[in-house]
Amino acid sequence: MFHVTLIAVLFPQRSLAAEPVSASTEPFWREVWIGADATTSSWLVYSGVTLSPLSGIHDDGPRLRFATGYGGYNWRGSTKAADGSVAHGAGTTIYADALIGYLKRLGPLTAKAFAGISLSGHSVTELVQPLDIPVAPGEEPIDGRDIGVKVSLELWLNLGARGWSSLDLNWTSAHDTYSARFRAGWRAWPTVSLGGEAIVNGDRRHDITAFMSEPALDHLERRLGAFARYEWYGGEVSLAGGVAASPDGDGVKPYATLNWITQF
């Protein structure tokens, strides 16, 4: 089973609600990011842009966001044949988002909400199915393209002078893909934050309605890790890593994510 499509959609994967380091008489109104994410069985590269046509990028006002990404993955089934073999395969994924939203500041809380259209495409490049061992329900690979609505919520909360937390939630009806990421950070230095993160990713193989009625994290990709974030006026770079677990037969595996953002 493979869940990667929204690691970047979801988390642009990037701390887009971050506070600016200093003020400017000519506020930035454009933000561009690029990033990469990898585990031992998947990889994803992505980029995007957020535009603030009527205000500065850190000020209240409407937003336009466009993002895209491309990646590849391997997967393994859980049902074994008599000789120990299992169904397995490989594929590629691509996505593209076009969203409109709004940023609102509420004291120490910065909130962003987006809605729009998302294209999610999966292409199975290899599928090996041992004799008499069908792919188990919920483990069948997703194949083909789907277009659907997407909604996203990003929250950033300053906790005193040095602490902060963030929560990113994403869902699209395209392959019923969804994700969530929580981060808690501490500014060890004025421009350097260290902290931890927890992430879950899922898609139509475990319907979000079924998950809400009977949460079962073993059906999802789960990540637990740490990150380091360096920020400056007009940008940031962050590196995260840890362990990921998913029901794809590979057990616990390492993951790493690198993001770079610039504002102008």
List the SSEs and their pairings:
Elements: H1 5-9, E1 30-39, E2 42-51, E3 61-80, E4 86-106, E5 109-128, E6 144-159, E7 163-172, E8 177-189, E9 192-202, H2 208-213, E10 221-232, E11 235-245, E12 252-263
Antiparallel strand pairs: 1-2, 1-12, 2-3, 3-4, 4-5, 5-6, 6-7, 7-8, 8-9, 9-10, 10-11, 11-12
Question: Can you describe what's shown?
Answer:
The chain has 264 residues and is mainly beta. It has one domain: Porin (Beta Barrel), CATH 2.40.160. 4% of the residues lie in helices and 63% in strands. The chain has 2 helices and 12 strands; from the N terminus they run αβββββββββαβββ. The protein has helices at 5-9, 208-213; strands spanning 30-39, 42-51, 61-80, 86-106, 109-128, 144-159, 163-172, 177-189, 192-202, 221-232, 235-245, 252-263. It has a 12-stranded antiparallel β-barrel with strand order 1-2-3-4-5-6-7-8-9-10-11-12. The longest helix has 6 residues, at 208-213. It is globular. Mean pLDDT is 85; it is low at 1-10 and 12-24.
Overall number of structural domains: 1
Q: Assembly state here? A: single chain
CATH architectural group: Beta Barrel
The percent of residues in helical segments reads: under 10%
Distance between the termini: 39 Å
CATH topology: Porin
The gist of it:
With 264 residues, this protein is mainly beta. The protein is 4% helix and 63% strand.
Features:
about 260 residues; mainly beta; twelve-stranded antiparallel beta barrel; about 5% helix; disordered N terminus
